[in-house]
Amino acid sequence: MSDKHKFIGRSVPRLEDRPLVLGQGRFAADIAFPGQWHMRIVRSDVPHGKINSIDAKSALALPGVHAVWTHADVVHIPNIPFRLTGLKPLEPYQQPVLAKDVVRYVGEPIAAIFADDPYLAEDAADLVALSIEPRPATMSATDAPGQYELDLTTEPGVVQKSYGDIAAALRNAHAIVSLELSVGRHSGVPIETRGAIARYDETRDVLELHGAAKVPHWNRDTIARLLKRTTDSVQLYEGHVGGGFGIRGELYPEDILVCAAALRFRRPIKWIEDRREHLIAANHSREQIHRVRAAIDVQGCILGIEDEFFHDNGAYMRTHAATVPDLTAAMLPGPYRVPAYSAVGHIRLTNKTPCGTYRAPGRYESTFVRERLLDAIAAEAGLDKVEVRRRNLIDKSAMPYALGLDTLGTEIVYDSGDYALLLDKALKAARWNELQGQLRKRRENGEKVGAGVAMFVEKSGLGPFDTVRIGMMPDGVLEVITGVASIGQGVETVIAQICADTLGIDYARIRVIHGQTDRIARGMGAFASRVTVMCGEASRLAANKLRTSALNAAAELMQTRAETLDIVNGEIVRADARGPSMRLADLARTLPDGLNAEATFESTHMVYPYGVHVAAVRVDPETGNVAIERYVIAYDVGRAVNPKLVEGQIAGGLAQGIGGALLEEFRYDAAGEPLSVTFADYLMPTVSEVPDVSILISEDEPSPLNPLGLKGAGEGGANPVGAVIASAIDDALQRPGAVTQLPVTPQRLKAILRDSRQ
Q1: Which residue, 234, 356, 418, 493, could crosslink 283 as a Cys pair with Cβ 3.0–4.6 Å?
Q2: What is the Cα–Cα distance from 312 to 355, expressed in whole angstroms?
Q3: How far apart are CA 209 and CA 31, in angstroms?
Q4: Are 214 and 420 in contact (CB under 8 A)?
């Protein structure tokens, strides 16, 4: 195929954008059915307490209010189960769909109102009288474990991962570097809040849930199990999604409630979350405190790392179970040689909103810890922060590199990587040496400016499978049906590019169907940066099958051998360009069963992209503001199907990483009252805070684990942002180890400056 007909590696325009730019998007709030009722949740305004009574008489007296449910109405529905990393001891801590006897955080669902319109439902919710006897609230994960319920404590589990002899490493160390570090509680805040619309089709005996995202098939199977229905009698439908980031699309109490109500009342039930609900009820993430130390030799090389951390998971264990602390412990070693390692992560429950995953879960936290540790080692050993990293990097010759740890059911084996080469490329792109000279001069003139560097390894391409079914339609469009989901990352475009390259047609003539459980029997959805790797390879396999079938069928009709034929721009042609050609669509019409193929790609190992971030900042000592003046990202993704989409993923992740580094934090008072319930209190980065970014996409080290060499790209923009900004602030203040807590808010930075003066 000529280069002009190749699509992999080209930044072709996105296929999914036309309806969005024309205002034809179909988000959850846009979906409506005749006769629908609206649901409103009555939420706890007490962080911890015993429910004495729920009086709904006044609410039920309102015309147009049809029902008020409490736990007694859903007592037959089990608690919401785990999707990932579900350790058996954690199961008693799963969340019920409506609170039973006890409330454990402000925002917990206590009752559900069903009314003719959303405004009436909201008015009715205000009339429900709750009598809750307050109990003491647990607000710190480092407090000694207390009683959760009967014989359960507030420490439901401990994550432990280790290899090597850490005791010997510490005993034989030239020096031991110790730090206490913390990452603040924040999460994804998509422009579209959560929404769910359930409808029961009595004629087909099918329960539909619209507004699905992320993992439609797992959610379908779980809803069916919880509501005691067969799998094929529950179907989920994904529309457009206004941002996912790990938080959207998990199974929440509200999703179960609208489904149960649609079955009970034989009415469509619609629920759309408001922003305050989102900030207090959707998954939080990130909050951890680490007590970490490294044993080093006289050259500043790491002999071992020991980490004990406390993961604040909020009030319940939701669908992710121990995923975040497990990833934290497993991925902390990063791109460095660490001969001995031990991590102990305490999962602690507090009276805060429950937690889940958020872009680069566990890695944003562990990269901050590890890279702060590398900077501290540099200070202890008298080394430059770049040199200390070079001395400790895993060499390319060691690949594939078995870390000796596991996570998400897979052993961690770095599949490929040249970390030193990418570091050189990043420093060159940032003009590091020139930058250092400029910053020194500015500091001599009284400015507080500095630069930081941070390195990381990501994980992507989580299996175990993805299945794709493709077929040529009568109009000449190739339809690709997949069980993945689209949350804005460009699924339709990337899968179309891979199919187009393999088959020999224009990517614009491919229609990708996703997020519809009635179109394909199974699917894994979109999470863990898995779609391009897993679904991409399944699509390539299916397209290759269809290509082979097409050439064999055409060879018979054209009275030649299949190996003499090719497919170019949708036309079956002779390789020697002699004789007649045939359109694929015409061939499909001649075949009794058309042109169809299905393929599954299975994988038991993840793939590991890696990157380097470089940042330069200016600190304003009067206001405590941090301005990012330069930002460079180098990221090796193995092979970029669409470089512009990769850049978009990285730039978006950077903005979210800056939020966690400098601004975003869910704060609570000592009694457990949330203080970040509006955008006036929960601060997010704007275009003023997000700098122009220089992005270098590297394809030096394709993965050997899939034929296209693909690695995921969704989380590398966010992963090390907190770490690199902390490093740059230290440099600006000329005070190694100044930053030990994220986010570095103006108030915290001014406190650091006061400490420096003292």
Answers
A1: 356
A2: 8
A3: 11
A4: no
Using alpha carbons only, what angle is made at residue 317 by residues 313 and 321, rounded to the nearest 5 degrees? 95
Evaluate whether 705 touches 602 at the Cβ level (below 8 Å).
Answer: no
> What is the distance between the alpha carbons of residues 255 and 197, in angstroms, rounded to a whole number?
8
The vertex-698 CA angle with 692 and 699, nearest 5°, equals: 150
Edge to edge, the sheet with strand 157-163 lists: 157-163, 341-348, 302-312, 288-296, 175-183, 741-742
pLDDT digit string (tens) for 500-509?
Answer: 999 999 999 9
What are the residues whose beta carbons fall under 8 Å from the beta carbon of 146, sequence distance 6 or more?
138, 153, 154
Mean pLDDT of 586-594: 93
Q: What is the pLDDT of residue 528?
A: 83
Distance CA 270, CA 114 (A): 9
What is the CA angle 578-584-585, rounded to 5? 135
In sign, the C-alpha dihedral spanning 110, 114, 119, 124 is: negative
Q: Which residues neighbour 101 within 8 Å (Cβ) at sequence distance 6 or greater?
A: 50, 51, 71
Interval 663-710: pLDDT, tens: 999 999 999 999 999 999 999 999 999 999 999 999 999 999 999 999
Residue recorded with tokens 């080469």: 421
Listing DSSP states for 449-505 in one string gives EEEEEEEEE--B---SEEEEEEEE-TTSPEEEEES---SSS-HHHHHHHHHHHHHTS
C-alpha distances in angstroms, 467 versus 381, 493, 619?
52, 18, 51
pLDDT digits (tens, 9 = 90+) for 299-330: 999 999 999 999 999 999 999 999 999 999 99
Q: Is the pLDDT of residue 600 over 70?
A: yes
Query: What are the structure tokens assigned to 181, written together?
Result: 């570090």
State the helix-helix crossing angle for 363-381 and 385-392, rounded to 10 degrees. 110
- Amino acid 348 reads R
399: helix, strand or coil:
coil
21's torsion region: left (phi>0), alpha (psi -120 to 50) or beta?
alpha
Distant-in-sequence, close-in-space partners of 527: CB < 8 Å, separation ≥ 6? 214, 215, 246, 357, 462
Q: What is the pLDDT of residues 153-182, one digit of tens each?
A: 999 999 999 999 999 999 999 999 999 999
Distance CA 629, CA 732 (A): 12
Q: How far apart are CA 229 and CA 599, in angstroms?
A: 29
Distance of CA 547 to the CA centre of its chain: 35
Condensed to tens digits (0 to 9), the pLDDT of residues 393-437 reads: 999 999 999 999 999 999 999 999 999 999 999 999 999 999 999
